[in-house]
Design goal:
This is Glycine cleavage system transcriptional activator. The chain is α/β, with parallel strands linked by helices and 291 residues long. The chain folds into two domains: 80 residues, Winged helix-like DNA-binding domain superfamily/Winged helix DNA-binding domain (Arc Repressor Mutant, subunit A); 180 residues, D-Maltodextrin-Binding Protein, domain 2 (3-Layer(aba) Sandwich). The strands form two sheets. Strands 3, 4, 5, 6, 7, 8, 9, 10, 11 and 12 form a ten-stranded mixed sheet that branches. The protein has a two-stranded antiparallel sheet with strand order 1-2. A hairpin with a 2-residue loop joins strand 7 and strand 8. The chain is elongated.
Length: 291
């Protein structure tokens, strides 16, 4: 029988050695910093040596830690390769993502080519509905919300950047349309009207416009298509209408932009954090969200 400490100790050590930080390792593992510290202390007690030392520049590996670190990284790489080699091929690299439909259509889809070119061995399944019969099959979720979600790794990807836009049909030469001359287009979220117009008008100092008037829609795409047809004026996250702004089919009525308060969050269940396909998707999202 092999004489080994619990593998979780070694995994924690590998994360701390890679990040050179207890707090960042704890975040990566979705555990508390105290739990990481205890695992390292138990491993040091098992080995009878110190693995890390705190310096003015942060956490540094000792000679013993430096010797152990590359072996642990290679060992976990070998374990991952071994596990992947025996998994069912069409399942082991299928990444299942739950995402809002408009975000998936207008933000994710135009960027997917770069992900697929970078990771051709990963097959994507993007849905906007959670299958209650098999929620455990979900690998991660993109969520529209105000704050981080509890009980999982929750990371803000990007905040909304709202601008007021209208079809060129509503402009008089280059003069933008008056806000009280056309319906205001509103979006519902979880059956409640988002206060994007109220927030935008307050930021513009416009107390003369009745934000309650207008038309409500259940999806952002409906709002966008109505605005494109000249059916009203909308306040929309500019990241959702990049194509329309570029080709001039929607025009800002003012260059002013209001950030937040909502944003798009990446939520990863704790038991999915160690999967390489999830880590690759997370790394790619961070790259394309902050070019």
């Amino acid at each position: 029988m092999r004489s080994l400490p619990p593998l979780n100790m070694l995994r924690v050590f590998e994360e701390v050695a890679r990040h050179r930080s207890f707090s960042r390792a704890a975040k990566a593992l979705s555990v508390t910093q105290g739990a990481v510290s205890r695992q390292i202390k138990q491993l040091e007690d098992y080995l009878g040596v110190s693995l890390f030392v705190r310096t003015s520049r942060g956490l540094t590996l000792t000679e013993s830690g430096s010797s152990l670190s590359p072996h642990m990284s290679e060992a976990f790489d070998q374990i991952e390769r071994a596990l992947q080699s025996v998994r069912i091929p069409n399942l082991r690299q299928r990444l299942r993502i739950l995402a809002p439909p408009t975000w998936a259509t207008r933000w994710l889809s135009p960027r997917l080519r770069s992900f697929l070119q970078r990771y051709p061995d990963i097959s994507l399944s993007v849905t906007n509905q959670l299958d209650n019969d098999s929620p455990a099959e979900l690998d991660c979720r993109i969520r529209f919300g105000l704050e981080a979600a509890p009980h999982c790794h929750s990371q803000l990807l990007v905040m909304e950047r709202h601008i007021a836009v209208a079809s060129p049909e509503l402009f008089d030469d280059e003069r933008p349309p008056e806000l009280d001359a056309h319906p205001l287009l509103h979006i519902l979220h979880e059956s409640k009207r988002l206060k994007v117009w109220e927030n935008w008008l307050e930021a513009m100092g416009r107390a003369d416009v009745d934000a309650s008037q207008g038309i409500e829609f259940s999806t952002l795409d409906q709002v966008i298509h109505t605005a494109l047809a000249g059916g009203g004026i909308a306040v929309i996250d500019r990241q959702m209408i990049e194509r329309e702004l570029a080709d001039g089919s929607l025009l800002p009525i003012t260059p002013a932009e209001v950030v937040g308060p909502y944003g798009y969050w990446l939520d990863i269940p704790t038991d999915k954090r160690g999967l390489s396909k999830v880590q690759r998707f997370q790394d790619w999202l961070e790259l394309v969200s902050n070019p």
